[in-house]
Amino acid sequence: MSDVRADVGEVVEKRSTPDVHIGSVVLEAISDATDTPVADLGLELNDYVDPDALDDLFGPRLDGESRPSGRVVFEVAGCEVTVHDGCRVVVRPE
């Protein structure tokens, strides 16, 4: 996983690899954007989006081929979260 670290209140972007659960990457990006440890966020990602569905949408197909481009946008903890194809997560604090 690679990431671009920004100051609190700035956009945070992280990239994942297919072997990392994208829900974990989303939580880490929210943590960085809000300067709050993941354990202290006090949220369940399942209350906002189905993390397994994100893996299914953006992970490789069973035959290993890439999926078509796309994105999912949702709000969590005062942040706009965008998950893009290629396992890229962008978090924008409001």
Question: Can you walk me through this structure?
Answer:
This protein has 94 residues and is of the alpha+beta class. The protein has one domain. Helix content is 22%, strand content 27%. The chain has two helices and five strands, in the order ββααβββ. The protein has helices at residues 22-34, 51-58, and strands at 2-4, 12-15, 71-76, 79-84, 88-93. The chain has a five-stranded antiparallel beta sheet with strand order 1-2-5-4-3, covered by helices on one side. The longest helix is centred in the first third of the chain and has 13 residues, at 22-34. It is elongated, with a radius of gyration of 13 Å. The model has no long low-confidence stretch (mean pLDDT 85).
Structure, briefly:
With 94 residues, the chain is an alpha+beta fold. It is built from two helices and five strands, in the order ββααβββ.
Mean pLDDT: 85
String of helices and strands? EEHHEEE
**Judging from the principal axes of the Cα atoms, what is the shape?**
elongated
* Helix-strand makeup class: alpha+beta
Straight-line N-to-C gap: 25 Å
Q: Into which percentage range does the β-strand content fall?
A: 25-35%
